[in-house]
Amino acid sequence: MWDTEVKRVSAVKRDYLARLAKEGKRPDGREADEYRPIKIEKNVIKNAEGSARVKIGDTMVLAGIKLEIGEPYPDSPNEGAMSTSAELPPLASPEFEYGPPTPSAIELARVVDRGIRESKYIKLDKLCIEEGKEVWIVFIDLHVLDYDGNLFDACSLAASAALQNAIIPNERHDIGKNESLPVGSPPVSCTFVKYEDFIVVDPCLEEDAIAQARFTVALDENGDIRAMQKGLSGSFTVDEIKNNINRAKIHAKNIRKLLEE
Amino acid sequence: MVKLLIKDGIRLDGRKPDELRKIKIEAGVLHRADGSCYLEWGENKILAAVYGPREALPRHIQDSTKAIVNARYNMASFSVEERKRPGPDRRSIEISKVTSEALEGVIFTELFPRTMIDVCIEVLNAEAGTRCAGITAAAVALADAGIPMKDLPVACAAGKVDGTVVLDLTSGEDKEGEADLPVAIAPRTEEILLMQMDGHMTYKEFEEALELALKGCKKVHELQREALLNKYKDFEV
């Protein structure tokens, strides 16, 4: 499916990045297996039930959590529900446009959603108000504020951090005192891109723009795999995928520490 | 109540863990399309049609260096137990995107600048594994349309059910099981064109599941080849 977010990179820059890649170097001087500095700030939006602003290098994402009362799904009458959406507003990049979510934004939100859902981070079974009638629905809304590459990890981290100290707004609905949202252990996602047969973790903007293939894996606290997504039209070999997962295990451990601080 | 999905190494539908469901592939089934394929995979019934390369419109989407591959995965409203609202939902938009990307990986798009290759995948009856079945059908339809490709892509899923790694999940196994791992490859090189996963697997289980999925892909690939050869068997040289 064609996408309106065409990422334009000049031929000169493309050549430059290819030349660097051959020497195993990256445009910002990082090692292939090195993240940019990560900064997590929690509870930055007063009106949200939970929120977090995450920076990975110059990429900045704001996640806000809202809880609403709704009907449960018929196949899980005593469980709450969750919904994740991502917005790529034009303030974050000259390439973003107003309008309904693009396929890229939908993919982004769904990959973040899978990591959280499959690791059972939100304890949905504790979000039932009245079986079959009323449950809490957790809305995770991701706002990209500044796009400098690697939205998958930034959004996933922001969502995890925002959920970490979210509350259930019982008082707003006159059904008791506010309480914290029951959560388990968060998933941590790691994203790699491949260009010119060079695989790097945490792609910066230029690397995102020329990436031929992308791979995201979400790991739980035991290093088990909870979700994966390969994207873009390039391919990975089986060994490259395995190598990525093993590299991700080490990164995820470090990122998890930041999340728990 | 806990229902056992695997008993004495045999699954509910009678298959062994490494066994595929029954697959039937037919190439060139539609009249108007440039290439087409009908595929049955268990209870999945899928039609794929290819149009193009044709002029990409509106013009501003044209790429002066290559063809755009535009796959659209669509589920019929009656293809699932509870009626699906017609039109693209978020799930089908994502599947369309990763399918387009997987197919683009093998097509020589640079041969057809400013054009679009449309791949329509219609799911008429769904029973788990539709994205893999869709890619498999789309590949046959692309070959049937004579689109030059470096390989004939193929997809198959593996997963984990009752703690056992199994091939080609049914919808019961997908729902009740622990993990699902759809994979698409270029079979000659085993390059991975699509990979998604949800659920819970250790790294070891993942390795096992991936190996199983690759084996499954290769078996399905043989059926794709047969379907294409079959279409032309009555032509005289």
End-to-end span of chain A in angstroms?
41 Å
Please report the number of helical segments of chain B: 4
Task: State the distance separating the first and last CA atoms of chain B.
Answer: 62 Å
Mind telling me the CATH superfamily name of chain A? GHMP Kinase, N-terminal domain
Query: Over the alpha carbons, how many angstroms does the gyration radius of chain B reach?
Result: 18 Å
Largest interface: A-B, 37 and 41 residues
- The biggest beta sheet of chain B, please? 5 strands, mixed
* Mean of residue pLDDT values of chain B: 93
Which series of helices and strands of chain A comes N to C? Answer: HEEEEHEEHEEEEHEEH
What profile does the largest beta sheet of chain A have? 6 strands, mixed
Q: What does this protein structure show overall?
A:
Chain A has 261 residues and is α+β, with helices and mostly antiparallel strands. Chain A contains five helices and twelve strands. Chain A has helices spanning 11-22, 103-118, 151-164, 205-210, 238-260, and strands at residues 38-42, 50-56, 59-70, 81-87, 128-130, 134-146, 167-168, 179-180, 188-195, 198-201, 213-219, 225-231. In chain A, strands 1, 2, 3, 4, 5 and 6 form a six-stranded mixed β-sheet that branches. In chain A, strands 10-9-11-12 form a four-stranded antiparallel β-sheet. In chain A, a hairpin with a 7-residue loop joins strand 1 and strand 2. In chain A, helix 2 (103-118) packs across helix 3. Chain A is elongated. The mean pLDDT of chain A is 91. Chain B is of the alpha+beta class and 237 residues long. Chain B has one domain: GHMP Kinase, N-terminal domain (Ribosomal Protein S5, domain 2, 2-Layer Sandwich). Chain B has helices at 90-104, 130-144, 171-176, 203-232; strands at 6-7, 10-11, 23-27, 35-41, 44-55, 68-75, 115-125, 154-161, 164-167, 179-186, 191-201. A five-stranded mixed β-sheet of chain B has the order 3-4-5-7-6. The model of chain B has no long low-confidence stretch (mean pLDDT 93). The interface between A and B is large, with 37 and 41 residues.
